[in-house]
Amino acid sequence: MDDEYGGMKWDNLGFGLMKTDYMYTMKCGKDDKFKQGELSRYGNIELSPSAGVLNYGQGLFEGTKAYRREDGGLFLFRPQENAIRMQIGAHRMCMPSPSVHQFVDAVKQTALANRRWIPPPGKGSLYIRPLLIGSGPILGLAPASEYTFLVYASPVGNYFKEGTAPLNLYVEDEFHRAARGGAGGVKSITNYAPVLKALSRAKDRGFSMSCTGFVNKRNIEEVSSCNIFMLKGNVISTPVPNGTILEGVTRKSIMDIARDLGYQVEERCIPIEELVDAEEVFCTGTAVGVAPVGSITYKGNRIEYKMSNEVVSHKLYSRLVGIQRGIIKDNKGWVLKID
Ligand SMILES: Cc1ncc(COP(=O)(O)O)c(C=O)c1O
């Protein structure tokens, strides 16, 4: 297995882009279906200056991971969910989308072609980034004439600089991430640049950019690129997706795991004030896993949460990782062996 690692130093792997060997590309016309894609060496792509994605933001992205287990086996976690989310997003953004089979096959091919970049167990994973963009030229506002589905990958370790330490969240009250009827419920590229201002404001106040929370009419909605949960007694609550929240694959998995462990799981509007009474708050996402929140700062007030090794979020995360690593039996068909 050492050969596969090619002398890479995997310790201290963060969440930065590391170029890998191959990417996958598949194209189709406006009223067409995606057919056959192919792998090519990773590199720059050529786009018309009037491509739909560059001018009108007609684009979606996804994020999933390939893992290496102790026995060397390579696995994906619920890639079909990402495929379905891309299809829903494509419908919202007037784009054709790859079938679930095409999506999963492209992710698989990209992971295998870059297998030497999948870190050893416990050191990280290969983050896989599928993109669907309007690549055809268009001048008047309309759907692009051609679409490109592209998949690339980068090995990653911890998303948060703080590692596994509890997160200190800063909740933004001026800039909103998404509005009802907008595209907040899908992974449109247009949702991300507008929040950079809020993230940099949080950074100026001494918080990590990836720890910025968003409220809508005083209800907590999301944290940068993860979903948020609170625990009180035996009840685990998370904001109800009403078109402004991205329904995470990790969110869905953690809700299932929590129910299996006997918790009552609720999706509802959560006024930010309610977090004061929470016993635990935690965030979920492909990049972050399940991250406990140590404090929340909103309108100058700071709420702190007690931390211990016994926290429920840790129990939920252990179960998720156990299934991903093959330590806990996957009786839900969540993991997909790819080699
Ligand atoms: C805005 C937003 N919320 C939540 C998530 C978490 O989703 P997932 O668990 O599928 O990674 C992401 C990341 O994809 C995101 O961008």
Characterize the structure shown:
With 339 residues, the chain is an alpha+beta fold. The chain folds into 2 domains: 10-156, D-amino Acid Aminotransferase, Chain A, domain 1 (2-Layer Sandwich), CATH 3.30.470.10; 167-325, D-amino Acid Aminotransferase, subunit A, domain 2 (D-amino Acid Aminotransferase, Chain A, domain 2, Alpha-Beta Barrel), CATH 3.20.10. It has helices spanning 2-5, 52-56, 79-92, 100-113, 196-204, 249-260, 312-325, and strands at 22-29, 38-41, 59-61, 64-68, 74-77, 125-134, 146-156, 167-172, 212-216, 219-223, 226-232, 235-239, 264-268, 280-285, 289-298, 301-304, 335-337. Strands 1, 2, 3, 4, 5, 6, 7 and 17 form an 8-stranded antiparallel beta sheet that branches. A 6-stranded mixed beta barrel has the order 8-9-10-11-14-15. The structure holds pyridoxal-5'-phosphate. Pyridoxal-5'-phosphate binds at residues 63, 222, 225-227, 246, 248-251, 284-286.
